[in-house]
Amino acid sequence: MAFPTSVNDQITDSVTQANVKVLGDAPAMSMGNLMQATSQALANAAHNATSAQQQTAVTAQAATTMGVTTLFAIDTASTGVATKDILTSSTKVAGLGHQ
Fold it and tell me: What's the CA angle centered on 77, arms 86 and 79, to 5 degrees?
């Protein structure tokens, strides 16, 4: 004891020991909190990266689908125009013998 008090020495020692325990546990608790916060941040970063990759893949697949659809549509459109020109009697198509 630092100086005599009117409080029972056992009570004073008990409170002192509890305070020392709290102070002794503080560094471990703070490191635990730091590790939890860091792991949560890294997990969020990994989740965001995975989500971004999935969204990029969906966008790439949509762009590929639209490109292929456009290629097929151009072929179909030009074939349709040529067929219409051939089947329309008023249109003269060179090389087919229409006079």
Answer: 40
| Tens of pLDDT, residues 46-74 | 999 999 999 999 999 999 999 999 888 87
Smallest CA-to-CA distance from 89 within 79, 98, 81 is with 98
pLDDT at site 55:
97
Q: How far apart (Å, rounded) are the C-alpha atoms in residues 43 and 36?
A: 10
Which helix (DSSP H) or strand (DSSP E) does residue 77 occupy?
A: helix 9-87
User: Is the entire prediction scored with pTM above 0.85?
Assistant: no
Alpha carbon distance 8, 1 (integer Å): 11
Question: 6: phi > 0 → left, psi -120 to 50 → alpha, else beta; which?
Answer: alpha
Place of tokens 């089947």: 87
